[in-house]
What we know:
By secondary structure, the protein is of the alpha+beta class. Helix content is 15%, strand content 32%.
Amino acid sequence: MSPPRWKNVHYTQFSITSSVPTQFLLFYKYKHRSFPTASPAAAGSVAWNRQLLPGAASPDGEERCATREEHHQPWAGSGQSSCGETRVSPHGKAADRSSGGSLTQGTDQVPEPPWQDQNLGLLECLTSTSSQQPPAWTAMTPSLKRLLEVMVAGYPVLLVRNRMEFHALGSKCPHYGAPLSKGVLRGDRLRCPWHGACFNIRTGDIEEYPALDCISCFKVTVEDGKVFITAKKKDLESSLRVKDTSRRCLLNRNTMLLLGGGVAALVCAETLRQEGFTGRIIMATNEKHVPYDKSKLSKEMNLKAEDVYLRKPEFLEAQGIEFWTEKEAVSVDFQKQKVRFMDGSSQKYHQLLIATGSHCGFLKVPGADLQNICTLQTPEESSKILELATGKNLVIVGASFIGMEVAAFLSDKAGTISVVEREEFPFQHALGPQVGGVTMKMLQNKGVKFHMKTELCELKGKDGKVTEAVLANGENLPADVVVVGIGSTPNSAFLKGTSIARDDKGAILVNLHMQTNIPNVFAAGDVVTFPVALLDGARSSIHHQQVAEAHGHCAALNMLKRGKELHTVPYFWTTLLGKSIRYAGCGKGYTDTVVKGSLEQQKFLIFYIRDGHVTAAASLNCDPMVSLIAEVFYLGKQISKEEAEACDIGNIPSLAQS
Length: 658
């Protein structure tokens, strides 16, 4: 007879007094279970909030309440036998000396929890057929590491089993709400399956971006094989937790001046406060808004500016961070340590961060000065494009990430959409022809027309407004609105004539401490070029939100003399028609690719190869593979081309598709 299986999970809540945090005992209920009679003393105990276990039938067929003396079997993930000895079976399951793979407690045999069979959050199926050594990624999720989302008083909680230890955390990533139960666990580090944010499972602290906040962490105790979670209701209601920070002290006269209002400057400011800096922090930006999520401007163009704010003005004020809007820097005197602004004012600093970002390239064709020719860099521009393009003829110049996302969002709103691109496929240099071909087909199926291997040579108009786009191949396209998504230039023109080191494109040169060649001057984000480990230390500019945040964090630590080197893996995503393509690493200069899965079925994983090793990976509908590979890169390990070719994504556990 096969052993009984878990049927469902139920939770019994009890509290000692109203002032004590609520504590929860996790029970598994399964078929064929007989329930002993509750003792009268236990039934009347005031220490228990007796709650009905729905569907938990007693031998007489009636539903019962759990009491202190009833021996419902709890979740037995502790791996402890009745004698306290634990061993690991060849299949990676916890077992005691007598159970042969199940856990025993007294004389009752307890089947293992369902994740042992489902391998939730595991990727141990990946093996190499060409080497005796397992590939690097098999070490990411050892057999005694498990992730399970459970409900506690109606709130989801992530229960983590790491070897013989248990941890309970907020179940959702604070970034976009990804289920962390489907993430990648390595040691004490849990990586989000969607966008690569990392959290420490012991503390819930954020260790890698793009998330800004930590996750809640709850007390876990194990007694006699029972797992207890202690949590306050207010902590259960939200998965995120903001780090504690120091307060502004007027006696500290030091000033940290941060030029820029994006994520690099924001994370720098917050890190300074989190690390104990009590002096003055000023963020100065030429924008009208507090820091906002720029990645949403082309993905969700119907949002208001307030909907994409990363931090509200009240938050910054509470942190003692001065935020100056519409304050554009026009020059810096590095000797006097003073910045001058467009409005004629100036500000001295003790340490300076330059995080002024980049801007889109401009058209240099006849008619480029006509009305309704737009770039997309602010919430106002996003709203304007949506308004102008609805029901009209839209021409997008450049098959960049922004251009493709705009085309996808407006595919059912604009009258016609035409994309003009020099290359053969969208974002060909970044993701290659395979991924570009897939996205092109996706958008073509929605009516988007592509004009590839040509370029815009003239714009014609009437009454000052654009009406027609003329292409180099002789085609004329109707154009009521034109969106420009070509190139990117660092916002560093105000540094011209100074001694700060920049490359030929204007990007500021920094080292791994985010330091420039000028004492007390740091730079971060899109405006810099920095040494990239995956490029063997060669410099590159990487315009990803997550990278900018990592720069800001590293810069803050070094402004505080912590001697911290940048250690991050670039992580990027683009969303088209409800499907997300994820990318980790740096594939610049790749010479070969390994494609796993099916491009036609839009379920694939692509490895980008240089010098025989993987330097980047992209996927669609294969979560959490890119996060797993990012973790391999983070550990400094390599994946050979042979290991990539041996990967069988058909064995990946069934995970929620984005």
